[in-house]
């Protein structure tokens, strides 16, 4: 029997329905973030295997149990890799069940980190993560006085600034990782620039792009996990496993995080962090959220006000540089994207 690999367009409703049926059959939920999907068809044009991409990751790959052992996953991975190369993405990542890691290892992917019995995070470069660790800038500050903060800053608020101020009071050097993913209304370069402008005059901060190894909750693929809490918990455990390696390479002894009264997902992440980081020999401190007029400041609430056309509400929630961005020509596209979005609050 011969097989054909082809793209399944978003407008191909019959093809997309067949993909959904195959994924369900193989115990996989469709990921919310996909930008390309392909299918492997037999001579009768029946869908036998599928796979998708999002940015530089491979996702939602499955082979019908009736066709397993026929090399169809090799066809899917090869096709998606060619698509990625055409897009200019040569450094690729995937997440898979622990039981499938050996298979993808044979296809040229290398393990970065794993959550036992849950998932493995892999890339197609043998020394990708080790090269990333070597390139990170280490401070001369003793480990017990060196801290880290990871933030999306979407956008950068006075709450973010307060978190960094509190971290800087407790540490001599604070490594600030701004998530590099270009997902969401505000581009990564703009978010990092807002952090830079919003922290001018603060001593001890060292800003970094997070690179591809620190993954946001918004784009973490949990399509083969049971429920949303399981997804959040496993994402946290994987992220902290990767962070522990980063902390070891950079001599980081503490991590600071903001209190989370709004988001259930982020609250779960903080809970796992408080449990896991001390096991890695890393201190963890939750900083109470800054409030204005009794209102805890949140990037989600800033986005909601912008979305609702009530931008004046945020004047006391953001630094002057963020205010200028959101009300000026530089941030016009981001504001338009926020106003078009169906959902701007993270739960």
Strand order of the largest sheet: 1-2-3-4-5-7-6
CATH homologous group name of the largest domain: HUPs
Estimated helix fraction: 25-40%
The strand count comes to 14
Quick one: biggest sheet?
A: 7 strands, mixed
CATH architecture call of the largest domain? 3-Layer(aba) Sandwich
String of helices and strands: EHEEEHEHEEHEHEHEHEHEEEHHH
Strand content is 15-25%
Keywords:
347 residues; alpha/beta; Aminopeptidase; Rossmann fold; 2 domains; 7-stranded mixed beta sheet; 5-stranded parallel beta sheet; 11 helices; 37% helix; globular
Structural overview:
This protein has 347 residues and is an alpha/beta fold. It has 2 domains: 4-131, 3-Layer(aba) Sandwich (Aminopeptidase); 137-340, HUPs (Rossmann fold, 3-Layer(aba) Sandwich), CATH 3.40.50. It contains 11 helices and 14 strands. Strand 13 (291-292) and strand 14 (295-296) form a beta hairpin. The longest helix has 23 residues, at 228-250. It is globular and about 65 Å long. The model has no long low-confidence stretch (mean pLDDT 92).
